[in-house]
Amino acid sequence: MRVIAGKYRSRPLASLRGLDLRPTADRLRETMFNVLTAGNPEALEGTVWFDLYAGTGAVGIEALSRGAGKVYFVESSARAVELVQANLRSLGVKTGFEVMKRDVACALPKLETLGVTPDIIFLDPPYRLELDYRRTLQSLGGARVLKASSLVIAEHDKRFDPGEEFGLLRRYRKLVQGDAGLSFYSLVAL
After folding, report:
1. 166: buried, middle or exposed (CB in 10 Å: 19+, 13-18, 0-12)?
2. Each residue of 23-34: pLDDT tens digit?
3. What are the phi and psi torsion angles at 32 (to 5°)?
4. 32: buried, middle or exposed (CB in 10 Å: 19+, 13-18, 0-12)?
5. What pTM value is reported for the model?
6. Least enclosed by CB within 10 Å: which of 54, 74, 79, 124?
């Protein structure tokens, strides 16, 4: 596993066996970032990200590598939190991030009370935790933490459909690559 592009391009990232970790594959991560930048490499400059169920931190680290201003890594496993921190240290990343050892259900209200407004939220629970997708998307669909331009991206097993609509969130695009899928959501204009 490696960083695909940007400041930390081609640098390796560590993972751990077990721990229910399934890092986002390099190819899928590259596809997702190609969609987000759509030919404009500066599209992510200064953006704020939530990397929910962060695991290895690969997606948030990729965002930092490509110019994100701040990434909030949210992970409930102590070993995974240590892994995210180790990956950040190995790249020499010292600023522009916060690693939160919390369950996503507790972290979202905390981020909301802090007034953090993300541009992009990426969530990737272990595929077997299908209920966590719906709970998290439902929570985001009613959260005040989102702004009109916020995007929510869920990585999921290609055989699982997390859903089309959650409160004010509507899926506008779905990509399938290999065994994984990406569902892209945005807020419905009122």
Report:
1. buried
2. 677 889 999 999
3. -60, -45
4. buried
5. 0.94
6. 79
Could you tell me if 117 and 48 are in contact, meaning their C-beta atoms sit under 8 angstroms apart? Answer: yes
Helix residue spans in the chain (DSSP H): 26-37, 58-65, 78-91, 104-113, 130-141
Q: Quick check: 153 and 122 in contact, CB under 8 A?
A: yes
Radius of gyration of the chain (CA): 15
pLDDT tens, 17-56?
765 556 677 889 999 999 999 989 899 999 999 999 999 9
Please enumerate in sequence order all residues whose Cβ is within 8 A of that of 39, keeping only pairs 6 or more positions apart, or say none.
Answer: none
Within 13 Å of residue 53, how many CA atoms lie on the same side as its CB? 22
Condensed to tens digits (0 to 9), the pLDDT of residues 156-170 reads: 999 999 999 999 999
